[in-house]
Design a protein that fits this description.
It comes from Cyclopterus lumpus. The protein is an alpha+beta fold. It has 3 domains: about 70 residues, Potassium Channel Kv1.1, Chain A (2-Layer Sandwich), CATH 3.30.710; about 160 residues, no CATH class; about 120 residues, Helix Hairpins (Orthogonal Bundle).
């Protein structure tokens, strides 16, 4: 080891002197050699000044200096003697995590009496940290999908210096924040009403009683439903164009997920209208236009997703799915393994029965899928006693496999939903404060003729 901090009292017995925040202690080298990956253990293999200074704050020929908590160092000494680290009383769990990371002690060295408590406190601290981050409305945070609408008020600074800044800012705030004023609430209710009317019209259009045919027995659009369709699409188009015109950043606006949904909900109408105009029945190049039109009409289902703009629950659901990729992957993996295993078992026990429909592996996959997800359509079922026993085991395993990841997904959804509600509440309180301040400033200007700007 570099330097002369290694002291020998007799053959085979050595120690080092450490000074941690004024607390001096002699540490046996044999105890440090048991944990060579720790900070003090790595000191034994240093061969230069630079290597030593990478591990400690300073050193002299007689001892090493560490500018750390002397109180926590007592727990570190106990770790070298017992091989286990315990939670420090009165120390924040985040500080404890930073301390053990500094000394090179991993979480796996936590004793069993403190391990569960440590992980529970860490999870609680992480949840609180995420909540504080969402309250600050950081646009590039991990939870931007949940806070997208709430952060729209922070975009008002981008209007400074642009054309018609005041007018565009006022329209933008009312379009994006329904709680800003009475006019904003009216606009939100009108938009929500048109969305609902569009969804109802789309559902009614699928009912055979409302289908109409012309003289050539060719199916045509119902004029009443077509009228509502045109009105709704024109409203959606006007709203989208208005949002785009007053948006502080057109690029950011077009990249927004909810705005992309708005665009996808109105584009099929114009594309299908153009296709219908070109399809005159004589042009052979457009013989597949009808199929394209039918596919594009199905895209009207995106209008249902427009409800997310007015629902904190739907936005929370989207954020949950976005941040639950690992849980969803585990669910798919568990089900895939179970389906493959039980489909093979049910095939081998049912293939000899003439009455059973489970005569092939693909049919077994279908049966295992609806059984493990507890759907059970009843179209395919086992006949033999062995098959029924396998089916019982398949259903029980399906309940366990689905329940395990779904619990974590539900907890995330609850956290996102509660956070979104708190964000909306803080936003409304801030809007009320801005309204009061604006009224006060306007009153002061009218009464005293004072002109100033609020940053």
């Amino acid at each position: 080891m570099f330097g002369r901090v290694l002291h020998s009292r007799r053959s085979g017995d050595c120690f080092i002197n450490v000074n941690v925040g004024g607390f001096k202690q002699r540490v046996d080298c044999d105890a440090l050699k048991r944990f060579p990956q720790t900070r003090l253990g790595r000191l034994l293999s240093c061969s230069s000044h630079e290597e030593v200074l990478e591990l400690c704050d300073d050193f002299s020929p007689s001892e090493y200096y560490f500018d750390r908590s002397p109180r926590f160092f007592l727990y570190v000494l106990n770790f070298y003697l017992t091989g286990k680290i315990h939670l420090a009383d009165g120390l924040c769990v985040l500080s404890f995590s930073q301390e053990i990371e500094y000394w090179g002690i991993t979480e796996r060295h936590l004793d069993f009496c403190c391990s569960n408590k440590f992980h529970e406190l860490m999870k609680l601290a992480e949840d609180k940290s995420v909540d504080q981050g969402s309250g600050e409305l950081q646009p590039h945070s991990l939870d931007s999908s949940t806070e997208e609408l709430s952060a729209s008020r922070d975009d008002v600074d981008l209007f400074e210096g642009s054309w018609c800044a005041t007018l565009r800012r006022n329209i933008w705030i009312r379009l994006e924040d329904p709680g800003y004023s009475t006019s904003a609430k009216v606009m939100a209710v009108a938009s929500l009403s048109v969305v609902i009317v569009s969804i109802v019209a789309m559902c009614v259009h699928s009912m055979p009683d409302y289908h109409q045919v012309d003289l050539h027995e060719k199916e045509i659009e119902n004029p009443v439903l077509t009228f509502f369709e045109i009105i709704c699409v024109l409203y959606f188009s006007a709203e989208f164009i208005l949002r785009l015109a007053v948006a502080p950043s057109a690029r950011k606006f077009l990249c927004g997920p909810l705005n992309m949904i708005d665009l996808l909900s109105i584009m099929p109408f114009y594309v299908t209208s153009a296709c219908d105009a070109m399809d005159n029945g004589e042009n052979t190049d457009l013989e597949n236009v009808g199929k394209v039109v039918q596919i594009l009409r199905l895209m009207r289902v995106f209008r249902i997703l427009k409800l997310a703009r007015h629902s904190a629950g739907l936005r929370s659901l989207g954020a949950t799915l976005r941040h639950s990729s690992s849980e969803v992957g585990q669910l798919v993996l568990f089900l895939s393994v179970g389906i493959s295993m039980f489909s093979a078992l049910i095939y081998f026990v049912e293939k000899e029965s003439q009455e059973s429909e489970l005569q092939t592996m693909p049919i077994g996959w279908w049966w295992a899928t609806i059984s493990m997800t507890t759907v059970g359509y009843g179209d395919t079922y086992p006949i033999t006693l062995a098959g029924k026993l396998i089916a019982t085991l398949c259903i029980l395993c399906g309940l366990l496999m689905v329940a395990l990841p779904v619990t974590n997904i539900f907890n995330k959804f609850s956290a996102f939903y509660e956070r979104q509600r708190r964000i909306d509440l803080r936003r409304r309180q801030r809007d009320e404060l801005h309204t009061v301040l604006d009224k006060y400033v306007c009153g002061a200007k009218e009464k005293f003729g004072i002109f100033w700007n609020f940053a």
